[in-house]
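Support reply, case 0932

Customer input (verbatim):
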Amino acid sequence: MAPTIKEGDEVPQGTFVYVPFTPELADHSACGIPTKVSTDAWKGKKVLIFAVPGAFTPSCHANHAPVYLQKYDELKSKGIDVIAVLSANDPFVLSGWARVLGFEDKILALSDADTQWTSKLGLSVDLSGAGIGLGTRTTRFALVLDDLKVKYLGVEPDPTQVTVSGVESVLAKL
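Our regenerated output:
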């Protein structure tokens, strides 16, 4: 699917489910309580969203997400108010993945179940052909919003690779 959103556009309204980090989750013996956040909460804020096809998948787990945590302070110093990873995984899987990666309360792990929001952006991808049960997912991209307007959009031509959606490409545009 080709992106239907572009730099300068305002993103459509979307609601995501996530499990906020609490100290009780640190030892992995609790699941947490899912809550919702809407794009409305980002009005007047600078938000960085990086999207991955799936938690615990090779490129997402090893090459994409960890570097965002490593560059957290640098991103914040460039004015980013909210950093979130977005995926079609359920909020419990994303919470577990975020805890394994050590995101704590620094990076929100947002579930876009059934790719409802990413489909509105033209940023979903059908990975059914991979033969491993992935189905329709968020494609790999990075999106910087300023007061809900797209300031940067980096969509990977090959969702197994991390180039324009990587943190270094985002930092170069901030």
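We compared this against your earlier run and they match. Two observations from our side: The chain is about 25% helix and 25% strand. The chain has a mean pLDDT of 86. Please reopen the case if you see a mismatch on your end.
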